Amino acid sequence: MIITLTANPSLDRTVRLGTPLVPGGVHRIVEDTTQVGGKGINVALGTARAGVPSLAIAPAAAADRFTVLLQEAGVDFLTTPVAGAVRTNITVLSPPDETTKINEPGTELSAEEIAALETALLEHAGEGDHVMLSGSLAPGFPGDEYARLVRALRERGAWVGVDTSDAPLTALAAAFPAAAPDLLKPNAEELGQLTGLDGAALEEAAGRGELAPIADAARALLDQGLGSALVTLGGAGALLASAEGSWFAPAPAPERVISTVGAGDSATAGYLIGLARGEDAPSRLARAVAYGSAAVALPGTTIPRPDQAHADPSTVRPL
């Protein structure tokens, strides 16, 4: 089973403007949607839609609008009780193809609420499960939460992946090799946070086909004990580095970019689907890129269905 933990879930509200976004100006909304969100929720939606047994775990009150919408989303889930409300993240889409994100920090969780979430995760995860720890940490969590959970999950025989950024990411890396997960899913900026490199420059280099700096940075993480690194590179594609080797898969040019929100989570879902199906590393990479590329042509944080993501392993090349 694929189990995702979303420590800081959200309601993702996406509004589309009819005119360019101008600071200080008055704008009119032409389209407005709200979906359940949070990186782990998005991943579980993608894997569940592909028919892979999945469970999404998150902290939320039973009467919260987030929980109500999650019941309608078509994924098995488990929420642990909290007193506060799930945060709302706002994505503003404006011409010409601009995406502006405004994220709430989330309600602070008590020590008891955090303990209940950890207990729920560890009670459900075990030998043979693939567990993905995704997203930011809500206020109240210790900074080394992911490092502690990686160790606890590995003791239970679970495969563990992590997708996070900023302080939780650097705290996790500081605990390598003891807390090194089986998979880390950074984007170029997050890879830069780990290696001291300029993330924007890495992504620009990937767009020019200069992949050596990214591959070297990913391999440096493997030397620290990491199992594998799936580095998403925006419109350029993605790179996978593991003990088996390193590969790059270019992203097909989309007919139209509607929303880039959730594209990285979709790529993670594609990778996990391939992993659950026993695909080899290049095929998993191809599926990740297919899912991420399909996501940008969908509104809001919509996660692709299998029929919308067409993997082509022939595009993957070794590095």
Q: How would you describe what is shown here?
A:
The protein has 319 residues and is an alpha/beta fold. The protein has a single domain (2-318), classed as UDP-N-acetylmuramoyl-L-alanine:D-glutamate ligase (3-Layer(aba) Sandwich). The protein is built from ten helices and 14 strands. It has helices spanning 39-49, 65-71, 111-124, 145-155, 166-174, 188-195, 199-207, 212-223, 263-276, 281-295, and strands at residues 2-6, 10-17, 29-37, 54-59, 77-80, 87-94, 98-103, 130-134, 159-163, 183-184, 228-232, 237-242, 245-250, 317-318. The strands form three sheets. The chain has a six-stranded parallel β-sheet, sandwiched between helices. A four-stranded mixed β-sheet has the order 3-2-6-7. A four-stranded antiparallel β-sheet has the order 11-12-13-14, sandwiched between helices. Helix 6 (188-195) packs across helix 7 (199-207), helix 6 packs across helix 8 (212-223) and helix 9 (263-276) packs antiparallel against helix 10. The chain is globular, with a radius of gyration of 19 Å. The mean pLDDT is 94. Belongs to the carbohydrate kinase PfkB family. It is an enzyme of class 2 (transferase). Residues 24-307 form the Carbohydrate kinase PfkB domain.
